[in-house]
Amino acid sequence: MLSSDGLLRLWTEIYEMTDTTTPLPTDCGKLCDSMCCRDWAPGVGVYLYPGEQLLIGDEPWLSRTWHDSRRYVFPPSWKEGGWFVTCEATCRRSLRPFGCRTFPLAPHLDTHSRLTMVLDENGGAICPLVQAGETALLTARFRATMRRAWMKLLCLKPIRDDVLQASSARDCRSNR
Ligand code: SF4
Ligand code: SF4
């Protein structure tokens, strides 16, 4: 795991890299009244990835709650737990969490550790882009930028472990 300074540098780079790229050439929030920024179900929010809180933990528009690994399921390398955050549908866009930036794409690692970007099935109830079921509808720039960002993040063991866990669960569901 990187030092705090190393994590801060990495997250600063990731935020700069992903700052202006969006899933569609126009604002996709017009398709759905920005559903993913609303309280579309009780308690919805996103997890910060390890180290991300160093960059945005104290923003006034963000509420964060510590989820202890004794009560919530995390990969063992997350150790004590992770930060779960919610907002009031307003954020400083340049500091929106990475989970908001990558949605509706999620990383998937196959059994040979090859990375593909897939639609995030967790957004199937709200996101017309997930419901459309076709990553090619998203701009090539968005897909390429998110892939590059994830390639960098996968060098961090806790993030890689989290992606492996989600990928394995996805494979199990699709083999049922
Ligand atoms: S729910 Fe999907 S289409 Fe709507 S704003 Fe979020 S990413 Fe865009
Ligand atoms: S932090 Fe910003 S992008 Fe993320 S859900 Fe809140 S308003 Fe939407």
Quickly describe the structure.
The protein is of the alpha+beta class and 176 residues long. It has helices spanning 4-17, 29-32, 53-56, 98-102, 128-132, 140-153, 157-175, and strands at 46-47, 62-68, 81-87, 105-109, 115-119.
Question: Which labels suit this protein?
Answer:
globular; 7 helices; 3-stranded antiparallel sheet; binds iron/sulfur cluster; 15% strand; alpha+beta; two-stranded antiparallel ribbon
Secondary structure topology:
Layout: H1 4-17, H2 29-32, E1 46-47, H3 53-56, E2 62-68, E3 81-87, H4 98-102, E4 105-109, E5 115-119, H5 128-132, H6 140-153, H7 157-175
Antiparallel strand pairs: 1-3, 2-3, 4-5
The chain binds iron/sulfur cluster (SF4) (2 copies).
One iron/sulfur cluster binds at residues 37, 87, 89-91, 96-97, 100.
Structural features, described:
The protein is of the alpha+beta class. The protein has one domain (4-19, 37-175). It has helices at residues 4-17, 29-32, 53-56, 98-102, 128-132, 140-153, 157-175; strands spanning 46-47, 62-68, 81-87, 105-109, 115-119. The longest helix is centred in the C-terminal third of the chain and has 19 residues, at 157-175. The radius of gyration is 16 Å and the shape is globular. The N and C termini lie far apart (35 Å). The mean pLDDT is 95. The protein binds iron/sulfur cluster (2 copies). One iron/sulfur cluster (SF4) binds at residues 37, 87, 89-91, 96-97, 100.
